[in-house]
Amino acid sequence: MEGSSVARFKEILKVFTSYGLGYLLGKKEEKEKKSPSNLRKAFEELGPTFIKIGQILSTRQELIPEEYIIELSKLQDNVASDKFEDMAKVFYDEFNKNIEDEFLYINKEAIAAASVAQVYRGILKNGQDVVIKIQRPNIKETMMMDFDILLILSEKFDRVFKESVVDPKEILLEIKSSTEKELNFIYEANNVNKFREFNKDIPCIYAPFIIDEYTSEKVITQENIEGFKINDKVILNELGYDKDDIAKKLTLSYFKQVLKDGFFHGDPHPGNLLIYGGKICFIDFGIVGVLSKERQQELNNAIVAIANEDIDKLTDFVMNIGIKIGKIDREQLYKDIDYMFRNYYTTSLKNIKISLLFQEIFEVAKRNNLRLSSDFTMLVRTMVMVEGLVAELSPELNIINLVILYSVNSAAQRY
Question: Contact 333/322 with Cβ under 8 angstroms?
């Protein structure tokens, strides 16, 4: 390790130990200190890399115990803003141009400041209102160094993961890979453009257009969306929006993204879904889910199988998407899925949440030595978020019927 890496390595060990988390590194610690809240506090103190890891782990119920899920979901990305001059230097290094010379106006006060980047409001010389997201100086180098240190330590982390069902090193590599993509704003810009292309003929769905001239690996400039959160019922009511209609359009848009496009927004919380000009506008495409045609077909088949109560096809679905981590007994898997569905079919269909249904199917898979790939874990997480929003907007909307109808119609069009 180089000098800066050694210093950071020592800092990580010191913080973990000070919070009674040395046991993660193989040290003996008093039992009462091994609290999930201490892990959250340590992650917050250690900064962006650890906050990112904690936020991702908080969505991965198949990886860590529930008490850690609850605590890590509280992680906050609250950091002080860097000086405008420091951010302007990043812009200059990317384009060899002074930011103030390129815009008719730029507000030097950041309108948002996270651990990775800061966002500024500006007006182009053609009068276009835009936002400019600029990466903090040296943040990529800092985060990659942290990941490298954690990979060295990863063999010690088995204790916090459930029953060694997963390899901590594999999870760290997965998070590192997704973080590298998020730190390349060209990747995000390409995602926005891809989403716009997929939805160009859908009048009710929108995403901001990218200003290519001022977009690079560390800077992304895009149309400013003056909207409001999709679940802001006060404004929706004041402006006379039909909340049931919005909920239905959101549901159909999301499942079109998943089942038809194979390309879906990976973080659909209310802050990333705005009502703008009568449309649902998706913003922030640093995280997206991608499904192959084969995966899309499997999901469509699974939804049709749910509609037809076809346990045999659902068993095939679980066998196909699962990663084998032990001996598989198909007959036992079939019985477990059948038992689960017998419980479900005593419930009114409109009371069934499709995200919960898939979560339970995947829990059955895990009990039968099948582990989910990361694309499906992201899918279930985003399903939960979308269903939560839909329930807020339109509690009576029968999501599962809507999705089954969409899937069955899609299947009929293919044949």
Answer: no
